[in-house]
Structure formats: C-alpha cells, structure tokens
C-alpha cells in the first residue's frame, strides 16, 4: 500500500482552507498552520462570480455559504450638488455576482475543513527543499516550541506578504507591484441617512471615490458558525 502523502498549508484564509479541503479529499494528510492565535473573523465585501461559485460547489461548501445580496436593491450615483442618478451597482454586473463578506466564505470553508490538523500561533521560519519534499521549521509564538518536519508539499497561502514566498523565493519587493492607490473598507452600523435600507450609493470627487454597498444579514465580525473546539 502506498504511503499517505503529507502537505503543510500555511495560512487559514480562503486560499489555505480551500487547498486543505481539496488535498484532504484527494487523500493527503494535511497540517495547516496559522499565525493568528485563533481563527480571524470578519472581513470586507466580496462579489462571488461564476468561478468562485463553481469552486464553492466543487468544494462542497455551498450549503454553508451565507450570501447577502439584498432584495430589490438600487444603486445611486450622488453628484456634488446632491442629485441622484440610478446606476448599475456592483452586484448588477454581468455574471450575476453574489454578495458575500470575506468572513462568510471563511466560515463556510472552516465548517468543511474536516480531518485537518490546525495549529494556531504558528509560523514557518525555514523551508529546505530536500528533493521530493521539504523540511519545514515552524515556531509557535505562544509556547515557543520549534519543530522540524518533513512534508511532501508546502502550500504558501499566507497572503500578499507571504512568508513562504520570502523564505523560498526571496524578498517581497521582488514580487509586489505597488499600485499607488489605497482602499479603506469598513462596515457601517446602519444605512447612510436618506437612502432606503437595501440601496447602495457612489460619490465621486476629483480624487477619491466613496462606494456604499448594502448587504443583508448579521455583521461579519459575529461568527456565523462557532469555531471548532
Ligand atoms: C476591498 C477589497 C475588495 C475585494 N473584493 C474582491 C472581490 O470582489 N472578489 C474577489 O475574488 N476578491 C476580492 N478581494 C480580494 C480577496 O478578498 C483576497 O484576495 C482574499 O481574501 C485573499 O485570500 P488569501 O487566503 O489568499 O489570503 P488572506 O485572506 O490574506 O489569508 C492569509 C492567512 O495567512 C495568515 N498568515 C499570514 N502570514 C502568515 C505566516 N507567516 N504564517 C502563518 N500564517 C500566516 C494570515 O493570518 C491569514 O489568516 C478584495 C479585497 C479587498 C481588499
């Protein structure tokens, strides 16, 4: 009988959990390490298009995915003078995207993680290619424990400034392309005054653009599913 192959996935985000579920279903033994001391909740608005929806179906997480597209929503462009003009909102784009929050996707994936060992507060500090696999040194920030383990595969799913990429391929500066733009996204407790509760809006000035997107359901910083014990 062939040996069960082992994978280390670094990062408990959308990419990390999707990889872990896929690998586990393909028969791999999966260990997942996450820098944060516990699962990160919340997140901003995302439009789930056809590719994302079919990935969610293939991963078997659709039943747990909470979508938030509001009913009968309209989107308004607000001029400097305060006039409103009806425009196509983000969720009215071709492709029929579904409104979700990042935390919704992560909650659905986490529900379906299954038999994956998750180690929180743990980061990789060295990765050595040994041909057909890698020896990975990890450190736990809470206990200080350092481990050297061999894995057949290492998946770097640790975000834009990936430590895995830095350890294996070199400094971030070699790979990051600055766009010289900044996005700030946050949730409002209630609708902007004078707009119906489901409606979105857009206000444009010479420089910045402000976009308000309406979503339904509980706030994302409230876990939709309780974390596994
Ligand atoms: C305003 C905004 C709108 C967006 N809209 C869309 C959209 O409409 N459609 C779309 O597809 N995408 C959208 N995105 C992008 C999408 O949300 C992100 O690309 C996606 O969440 C990234 O997932 P990820 O798993 O790759 O990384 P992350 O979500 O960044 O997860 C990385 C995980 O790795 C952990 N980690 C980091 N470093 C280490 C380490 N050294 N060791 C261990 N763990 C580590 C982190 O704590 C984190 O849990 C949007 C992004 C923004 C900012």
UniProtKB/TrEMBL annotation:
Which InterPro entries did the record assign?
Answer: FAD-bd, FAD/NAD-bd_sf, FAD_aromatic-hydroxylase
Q: Which Pfam families match?
A: FAD_binding_3
The UniProt keywords, alphabetically, are: Monooxygenase, Oxidoreductase
Record GO terms (molecular function): monooxygenase activity
Q: Which domain of life is it from?
A: Bacteria
Tell me the ranges covered by the FAD-binding domain, including all copies. 7-167
Protein name per UniProt: FAD-dependent monooxygenase
Q: Show the taxonomic lineage.
A: Bacteria, Pseudomonadati, Myxococcota, Polyangia, Polyangiales
């Amino acid at each position: 009988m062939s040996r069960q192959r082992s994978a280390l996935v670094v990062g408990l985000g959308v990419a990390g959990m999707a990889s872990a579920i896929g690998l586990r279903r393909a028969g791999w033994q999966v260990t997942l390490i996450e820098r944060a001391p516990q699962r990160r909740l919340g997140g901003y608005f995302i439009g789930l298009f056809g590719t994302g929806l079919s990935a969610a179906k293939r991963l078997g997480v659709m039943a747990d995915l909470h979508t938030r597209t509001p009913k009968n929503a309209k989107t308004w462009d607000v001029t400097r003078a305060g006039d409103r003009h009806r425009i196509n909102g983000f969720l009215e784009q071709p492709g029929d995207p579904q409104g979700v929050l990042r935390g919704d996707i992560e909650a659905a994936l986490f529900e379906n993680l299954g038999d994956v060992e998750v180690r929180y507060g743990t980061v990789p500090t060295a990765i050595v290619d040994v041909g057909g696999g890698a020896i990975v040194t990890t450190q736990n920030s809470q206990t200080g424990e350092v481990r050297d383990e061999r894995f057949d595969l290492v998946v770097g799913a640790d975000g834009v400034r990936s430590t895995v990429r830095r350890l294996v391929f070199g400094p971030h500066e070699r790979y990051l392309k600055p766009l010289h733009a900044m996005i700030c996204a946050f949730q409002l407790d209630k609708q902007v005054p004078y707009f119906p509760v489901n409606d979105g809006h857009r206000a444009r000035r010479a420089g910045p653009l402000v976009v308000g997107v309406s979503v339904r359901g509980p706030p994302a910083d409230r876990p939709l599913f309780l974390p596994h014990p």
